[in-house]
């Protein structure tokens, strides 16, 4: 493969893609074309992984029972999280929409297979967490691929991962990395929703230390 010289226009579009990536919680209920979803899932196949271990394991949560179990899990964890705040912070938290699980037409649970012998342990002997980092790298590429198709992704982190693993009946060596809602966003913004809601602000600059 020859070196690819990307144009200024491409770099501008790529910058826009990253700015509009956003964590989406508000979805339309329109269905997603399966061919489009499959094309986006190809990002996992293209992603880097430690030792070429490809430790990601993707579960499509589709049955009513599985979806209800995941939603119940989120609701319980969300109530517990709310109880940890007080005053104005608790009031603000209670108003945040932190999941699109009841609207998103596609939901995925992505695990890391920490017992996989693929890759023969290369690069993970001293840092076994590299397998999980590899899964996160793949998810990031998947996220960008979805955005390039006009789709949005919402990462639901307010969950009991062990309970979800039991509900989905996955092997004990699979550890949850993320639960994802996927669909067509109600709207687009280059500003994080939590920033718009007044929860926190994004840093303007990246502090880099020199040692």
Which range best describes the helical content: under 10%, 10-25%, 25-40%, 40-55%, 55-70% or over 70%?
A: 40-55%
The radius of gyration is 19 Å
Tell me the domain tally: 1
With helices defined by DSSP (H or I, 4 residues minimum), what is the helix count? 7
Kindly report the average pLDDT value.
96
Q: Mind describing the biggest β-sheet?
A: 4 strands, antiparallel
Which descriptor suits the 3D outline? Answer: globular
State the strand order across the main sheet. Answer: 1-2-4-3
> Ranges with pLDDT <50 over ≥5 residues?
none
For this structure, what is the CATH homologous superfamily?
NADH Oxidase
Straight-line distance between termini: 38 Å
Q: Give the number of DSSP strands.
A: 4
CATH topology: NADH Oxidase
Strand content of the residues, in percent? 5-15%
Question: Architecture, CATH level 2?
Answer: 3-Layer(aba) Sandwich
Instruction: Write the element-wise H/E pattern from the N-terminal end onward.
Output: HHEHHEHEHEH
Q: Please state the structural category.
A: alpha+beta
In CATH's first tier, which class applies?
A: Alpha Beta
């Amino acid at each position: 493969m020859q070196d690819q010289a990307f144009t200024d226009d491409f770099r501008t579009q790529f910058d826009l893609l990253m700015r509009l990536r956003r964590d989406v919680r508000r979805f339309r209920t329109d269905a997603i074309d399966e061919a489009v979803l499959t094309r986006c899932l190809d990002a996992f196949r293209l992603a880097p992984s430690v030792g070429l271990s490809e430790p990601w394991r993707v579960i499509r949560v589709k049955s009513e029972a599985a979806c209800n179990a995941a939603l119940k899990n989120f609701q319980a964890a969300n109530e517990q999280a709310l109880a940890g705040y007080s005053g104005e912070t608790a009031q603000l938290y209670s108003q945040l929409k932190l999941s699109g699980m009841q609207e998103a037409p596609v939901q995925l649970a992505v695990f890391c297979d920490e017992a996989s012998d693929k890759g023969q342990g290369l690069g993970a002997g001293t840092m076994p967490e590299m397998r999980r980092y590899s899964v996160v790298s793949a998810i990031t590429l998947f996220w960008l691929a979805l955005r390039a198709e006009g789709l949005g992704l919402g990462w639901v982190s307010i969950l009991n991962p062990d309970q979800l693993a039991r509900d989905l009946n996955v092997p004990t060596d699979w550890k949850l990395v993320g639960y994802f809602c996927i669909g067509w966003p109600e709207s687009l913004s280059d500003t994080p929703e939590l920033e718009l809601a007044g929860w926190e602000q994004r840093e303007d600059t990246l502090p880099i230390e020199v040692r």
